């Protein structure tokens, strides 16, 4: 009956968000996703109350990492038994499971209290855009990506490249693309 | 180190021992040696005697009824005569009991008369005035609210619970002359009504209305008037209102939803009339949300929404003039008059 | 010299020791194990607990201030305003509401908070070089009044 009752319901209802991890840094993404999982985007936030939202993440197989991180970033694991310690590099873990890196990044970012497992269960990770319908129907809104997706040179058309303002032309013998280098017979004979 | 401190404190205790009992109780810091014994003794005494019986304030030695009566009038800012105040507080049951007591003692009532009137008539007068004024005021501040709603809010204010609450907080419980103790709620309510009646009789009606304004109407602060009136069919009433204003019939539309495949689903439904949003509300299911949206639209149309201006109370209401005989429209009559033709055919 | 009587005298005049210890028992009633009943053990825990409670004043304040900050950031984000800009604008415009009041407004009176956010957006549009090119906004708030 009461109108105020439904207002209460709406205040504490969980909404569902979708996040596209395509070409996104997993650690920066985790920072943003944790805000939504903990409910820090709501004015009624309290660290002890379970008011976080659901987050659906797609394209986790296409996450990106800067510098040498794919080779050099290591994930640690200990089974609990003597000699049970192991290290795995990021590229290898990603090879084993497409969603594991983002899962670990978010898990380590969340506060280590009893709510952490529950919050993790509200994080739905999918390696590509194939999401079950019953999950996709719940989704209300999307979370903005943390970084701009870079556009590689081969995505630009030839027209765009030609029209790009240039200060000077490279000399003809200057090698930009090694595969397109003209064969010089004078030097070739020495090899 | 520790030993030296202990020795020092021992010597200090010996030196500071009380040699003679002082008549004055000197305030000391620290622990009272005998306090525990005293408290234990008091506790045992209390166990023997049992709990303190509930006694009327007049049983204490420093009770002066005349002074208390005078102070009561002054406290409320009403300079009522002493006799009037006496009448306000004397109940029929009390007078009868006194009369019987005298008869039992063999006192002739004709020679030593009981110069007390009961407050029955005053209470009746006060109740009529209070009821009339509250309704008039509510109709004035909520002109578009339906008569059923006005009655519901009026009943809320005039309920025994509410008047008892007000009466006890202005301190009429101790002053009442009645046979029941502890005082019943109904007796307190009757006294409060009699007080209003007495102000009307001795001063004037305006003064009594000011009293109602200052003591009873402020209880509406923080009360949601829409919650007091239970609308059974909000959509029907909304349709009738829109039909009477020649606006389009209400069209519910789903504004947004979240978690629709889960147990914690929430739907926001808005109600449109001629493509204009007139109310919206959330709900667990679409049908609940639709009903609540209709209620919200009704609130907006009756001008009792949450964003309504504050009530006219205190200084704002000093020059308030309104016609008390004017009544608002009854919802039942309104629906009968303005029900859309198609709906009427279907229902018949 | 016979000095033993001094000892007796001090013991007679001393406070009721159990009564004095009762004060500590009032704190120790909820402890677990022997530190609940044995005074020697409970006094250590109690003193540490009292020390903690004295020292925890500052962290407690920081903890609650942080919650208030997160809530206000969330409330500002809902209306597309930055938290720092929001507080700065309110301060410059002499809207004297502290953060505790603002978070209560955000929770219990969201429409009031929204109006404050709208005000911030409008006010920020009037600041800087861009203001010279824009026209005076219509409505109650004008540049002259602020």
From TrEMBL, chain A:
One of its GO terms (cellular component) is mitochondrial large ribosomal subunit. GO terms for molecular function: mRNA binding; structural constituent of ribosome. InterPro entries: Ribosomal_uL13, Ribosomal_uL13_bac-type, Ribosomal_uL13_sf. One of its GO terms (biological process) is negative regulation of translation. Coiled coil: none annotated. It comes from the Eukaryota. Keywords: Ribonucleoprotein, Ribosomal protein. Transmembrane segments: none annotated. Belongs to the universal ribosomal protein uL13 family. This is 39S ribosomal protein L13, mitochondrial. The lineage of its organism: Eukaryota, Metazoa, Spiralia, Lophotrochozoa, Mollusca.
From TrEMBL, chain B:
Keywords: Mitochondrion, Ribonucleoprotein, Ribosomal protein, RNA-binding, Transit peptide. It comes from the Eukaryota. One of its GO terms (molecular function) is double-stranded RNA binding. Residues 72-204 form the RNase III domain. One of its GO terms (biological process) is mitochondrial translational elongation. It holds the Pfam family DSRM_MRPL44. GO terms for cellular component: microprocessor complex; mitochondrial large ribosomal subunit. Its main location: mitochondrion. It is found in: Mitochondrion. SMART domains: RIBOc. It comes from Patella caerulea. This is Large ribosomal subunit protein mL44. Belongs to the ribonuclease III family. Mitochondrion-specific ribosomal protein mL44 subfamily.
TrEMBL record, chain C:
GO terms for biological process: translation. Transmembrane segments: none annotated. It comes from Patella caerulea (Rayed Mediterranean limpet). The keyword Ribosomal protein applies. GO terms for molecular function: rRNA binding; structural constituent of ribosome. GO terms for cellular component: ribonucleoprotein complex; ribosome. Gene3D superfamilies: Ribosomal protein L20 (1.10.1900.20). Keywords: Ribonucleoprotein, Ribosomal protein. InterPro entries: Ribosomal_bL20, Ribosomal_protein_bL20_C. It comes from the Eukaryota. Belongs to the bacterial ribosomal protein bL20 family. This is 39S ribosomal protein L20, mitochondrial.
């Amino acid at each position: 009956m009461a109108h105020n009752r439904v207002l209460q319901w709406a205040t504490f209802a969980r909404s569902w968000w979708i996040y596209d991890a395509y070409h996104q840094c997993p650690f920066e993404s985790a920072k943003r996703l944790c805000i939504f999982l903990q409910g820090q985007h709501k004015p009624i936030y309290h660290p002890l109350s379970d008011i976080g939202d659901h987050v659906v993440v797609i394209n986790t197989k296409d996450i990106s990492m800067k510098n040498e991180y794919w080779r050099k970033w290591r994930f640690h694991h200990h089974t609990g038994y003597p000699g049970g310690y192991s290290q795995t590099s990021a590229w290898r873990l990603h090879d084993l499971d497409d969603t594991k890196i983002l899962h670990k990044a978010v898990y380590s970012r969340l506060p280590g209290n009893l709510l952490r497992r529950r919050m993790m269960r509200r994080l739905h990770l999918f390696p590509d855009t194939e999401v079950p319908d019953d999950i996709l129907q719940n989704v209300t809104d999307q979370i903005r990506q943390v970084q701009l997706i870079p556009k590689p040179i081969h995505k630009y058309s030839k027209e765009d490249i030609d029209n790009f303002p240039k200060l000077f032309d490279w000399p003809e013998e200057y090698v930009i693309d090694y595969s397109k280098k003209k064969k010089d017979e004078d030097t070739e004979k020495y090899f | 180190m520790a030993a030296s401190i202990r020795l020092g404190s021992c010597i200090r205790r010996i030196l500071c021992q009380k040699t003679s009992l002082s008549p004055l109780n000197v305030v000391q810091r620290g622990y009272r040696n005998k306090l525990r014994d005293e408290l234990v003794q008091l506790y045992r005494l209390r166990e023997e005697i049992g709990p303190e019986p509930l006694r009327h304030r007049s049983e204490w030695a420093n009770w002066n009824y005349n002074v208390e009566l005078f102070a009561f009038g002054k406290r409320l800012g009403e300079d009522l005569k002493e006799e009037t105040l006496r009448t306000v507080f004397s109940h029929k049951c009390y007078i009868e009991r006194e009369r019987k007591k005298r008869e039992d003692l063999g006192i002739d009532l004709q020679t030593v008369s009981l110069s007390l009137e009961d407050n029955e008539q005053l209470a009746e007068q006060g109740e009529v005035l209070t009821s009339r004024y509250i309704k008039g005021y509510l109709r004035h501040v909520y002109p578009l609210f339906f008569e059923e709603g006005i009655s519901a809010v009026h009943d809320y204010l005039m309920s025994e619970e509410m008047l008892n609450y007000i009466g006890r907080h202005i301190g009429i419980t101790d002053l009442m002359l009645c046979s029941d103790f502890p005082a019943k709620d109904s007796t307190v309510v009757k006294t409060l009504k009699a007080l209003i009646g007495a102000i009307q009789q001795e001063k004037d009606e305006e003064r009594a209305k000011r009293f109602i304004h200052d003591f009873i109407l402020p209880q509406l602060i923080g009360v949601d008037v829409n919650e007091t009136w239970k609308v059974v069919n909000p959509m029907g009433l909304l349709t009738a209102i829109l039909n009477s204003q020649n606006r389009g019939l209400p069209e519910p539309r789903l504004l947004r939803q979240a978690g629709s495949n889960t147990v914690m689903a929430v739907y926001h439904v808005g109600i449109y009339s001629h493509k204009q949003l007139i109310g919206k509300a959330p709900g667990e299911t679409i049908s609940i949300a639709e009903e609540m949206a209709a209620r919200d639209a009704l609130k907006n149309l009756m001008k009792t929404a949450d964003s309504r201006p504050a009530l006219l109370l205190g200084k704002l209401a000093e020059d308030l003039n309104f016609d008390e005989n004017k009544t608002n429209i009854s919802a039942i009559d309104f629906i009968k008059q303005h029900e859309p033709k198609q709906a009427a055919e279907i229902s018949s | 010299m016979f000095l033993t009587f001094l000892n007796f005298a001090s013991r007679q005049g001393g406070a009721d020791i159990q009564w004095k210890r009762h004060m500590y028992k009032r704190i120790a009633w909820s402890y677990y194990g022997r530190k609940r009943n044995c005074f020697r053990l409970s006094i250590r825990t109690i003193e540490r607990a009292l020390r903690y409670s004295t020292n925890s004043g500052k962290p407690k304040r920081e903890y609650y201030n942080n919650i208030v900050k997160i809530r206000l950031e969330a409330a500002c984000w809902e209306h597309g305003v930055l938290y720092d800009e929001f507080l700065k604008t309110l301060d410059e415009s002499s809207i004297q509401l502290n953060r505790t009041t603002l978070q209560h407004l955000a929770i219990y009176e969201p429409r009031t908070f929204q109006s404050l956010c709208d005000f911030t957006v409008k006010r920020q549009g009037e600041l800087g070089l861009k203001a010279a090119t824009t026209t005076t906004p219509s409505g109650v708030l004008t540049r002259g009044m602020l």
